[in-house]
Design a protein that fits this description.
mainly beta; 7 helices; about 10% helix; globular
């Protein structure tokens, strides 16, 4: 039942790190409301033009239903998964959406109340039970939710929707039909896996997942082999490549993603802690799982580097001052070092605000919520791999002239890593950056120049950004009252330039007459090529992928 651990939430700190104070924020409550599904494809209205070479499906995932009967979910991450599809073909676009037919969704619907507990919502006992029966239900082991509302992932040619628990659902990317539920523990000894795996060109996939036993917890790097035949064999052949012991086995760190270079997996052990005792007893104490997660900045952030070919963890100990990270940008190797780029926050308390009651506030209350949270900024770390007893103490070990990141060996042999900012001065004005994306198929694990993301001058993304890591300049797309989703990069076929392609982003608005549209930007110039307007309301979602035809 640890498998429900999905996305971090911690108790509000006494002192928050803030940057620019904002006032008069627009109410975004309509972006966090239940909507109806659109199961049959509907046409969109094209403005500008959609390049005819783009053929495939933009698949998006996120919460779309926030109550059953009179009972309401408490947290944004608890909403039932609504799957979206924008099908692009020969310059036209159609849209459809379907609710994931998970056990949680079906059981809640059948009972017209919240039966399955979620990350921030504890399901109440059946009111039809006796008082004694309701009391005994507190001692039952809760079943993990299978509400896979975070991302689409691919294993062996098949698409699945995933969050971070023990269950995924195989889905048809053409019809959005829910196919079958897959239990990670039936294939490999883990209690779940992230919704951000990494892919090799041959179809090999790497992921990470925790395991929990009587002796505490472990972080596990998982390798899933490519498909061996035309027959789907799901996760057959998956294995734990390396198992890493947490600093504290009863309080492991939360993680949402990890880095991968050509030869290494890079895991960031951050001081967002999962208190296993509190999580185990959450139902008994009448608390949701989220109450067992906390930011503990008395601990540093550590980097673990594992050879993905041998499964061996490198013996070095790299660390930084405490920071929190949810999404990595890229990682690559150069001159005996691993270069790791991350979106970082100086405090791990930000997601405590993502309760629905906060997101639905208006006026000064909404401004106060936004101004209380830290922002995420892109940062670069350099990890020198060949550090030994002969390596001098106190000297900068970074040999790379193009980055000012530092790595210094301490007297105890550990290597202290000091980041370089990958953004220009004044980047605070766009609210920092999250939901980073790159030209993944050609540049993941390689030295690169550009990444894309959402600017956050609100509690959700309110702009799209393109950042040049060499010149530390950026380009921006924004439109008042519009809130774009994670940008997805689609390369031009046979392109030579890194940024030769288009950016796809679903843009929503809380204003009723503004509507929703799929935005298409030229990735090089960051200018709009066209948009496909959809005559339905959509909530703000999480992640997605483009599946080419």
């Amino acid at each position: 039942f640890f498998a429900d651990l999905r996305t971090s939430l911690s108790r509000p700190a006494k002192e928050q790190i803030t940057f620019h104070s904002h006032r008069g924020l627009q109410c975004i409550s309509p972006l966090m409301q239940t909507v109806e599904e659109t199961p049959q494809p509907i046409p969109t209205k094209i403005k500008g033009h959609i390049p005819k070479w783009i053929n495939g499906n933009l698949l998006r995932n996120g919460p779309g239903k926030f109550e059953f009967g009179e009972e309401k979910f408490n947290h944004w991450f608890d909403g039932m998964a609504l799957l979206h599809q924008f099908q692009l073909e020969n310059g036209t676009v159609t849209y459809r959406s379907k609710f994931l037919q998970s056990s949680s969704y079906l059981t809640n619907s059948q009972n017209n109340r919240i039966v399955a507990s979620e990350f921030g919502t504890l399901a109440m006992p059946d009111p039809c039970k006796s008082v004694f029966g309701r009391f005994l239900s507190r001692f039952e082991i809760p079943q993990p939710s299978d509400n896979a509302n975070v991302n689409y992932v691919m294993y062996k040619g098949d698409y699945y929707v995933s969050n971070e628990n023990i269950f995924m659902h195989k889905v048809d990317p053409e019809t959005l039909e829910t196919k079958e539920k897959v239990d990670w523990s039936k294939f490999v000894a883990v209690n779940g896996a992230t919704a951000h795996p990494h892919y090799e060109s041959d179809g090999t996939v790497y992921n990470m997942g925790n395991s929990y036993g009587k002796h505490g917890s472990r972080y596990n790097i998982i390798q899933i082999p490519p498909q061996e035949s035309n027959c789907s064999d799901m996760l057959q052949g998956a294995k734990v490549l390396c198992s890493i012991a947490p600093m504290d086995k009863m309080k492991p760190s939360y993680y949402h993603s990890f880095g991968m270079s050509k030869n290494y997996i890079i895991f960031v052990e951050q001081p967002i802690k999962l208190n296993l005792l509190q999580i185990i007893t959450s139902q008994l104490r009448g608390k949701p799982i989220s109450e067992g997660i906390s930011w503990e900045p008395q601990y540093n952030t550590y980097f673990h580097v594992v050879n993905k070919h041998t499964g061996e963890a490198l013996p070095g100990q790299w660390y930084s001052k405490p920071f929190a990270t949810f999404h990595q940008i890229n990682a690559f190797e150069d001159n005996g070092c691993v270069v790791l780029d991350l979106c970082c926050q100086d405090s791990g308390t930000a997601l405590a605000t993502y309760k629905l009651q906060n997101l639905r506030r208006t006026g000064e209350g909404l401004d106060q919520v936004y101004n209380s949270i830290p922002r995420a900024f892109p940062r670069r770390f350099v990890l020198p791999l060949h550090v030994n007893s002969d390596t001098p103490v106190g000297k900068n070990l970074n040999p790379l002239s193009y980055t000012s990141a530092r790595a210094v060996k301490d007297a105890d042999g550990k290597v202290r890593c000091i980041h370089e900012n990958l953004h220009p001065e004044g980047f605070e004005n766009v609210g920092g950056l999250e939901f980073p994306q790159i030209n993944y198929t050609q540049y993941n694990g390689r030295k690169y120049r550009f990444f894309y993301g959402c600017g956050f001058r609100h509690l959700v993304g309110d702009s799209l950004l393109k950042v040049d890591v060499e010149t530390k300049t950026f380009k921006i797309w924004q439109e008042d009252g519009s809130y774009p989703s994670e940008p997805v990069f689609v390369p031009v076929p046979n392109a030579m330039a890194e940024d030769s392609g288009i950016i796809l982003s679903v843009v929503v608005s809380p204003t009723e007459n503004r509507g929703t549209f799929l935005l298409v930007l030229d990735a090089e110039t960051f200018r709009e090529l066209g948009r496909a307007e959809v005559p339905v309301q959509m909530p703000y979602g999480f992640h997605g992928v483009f599946a080419s035809h």
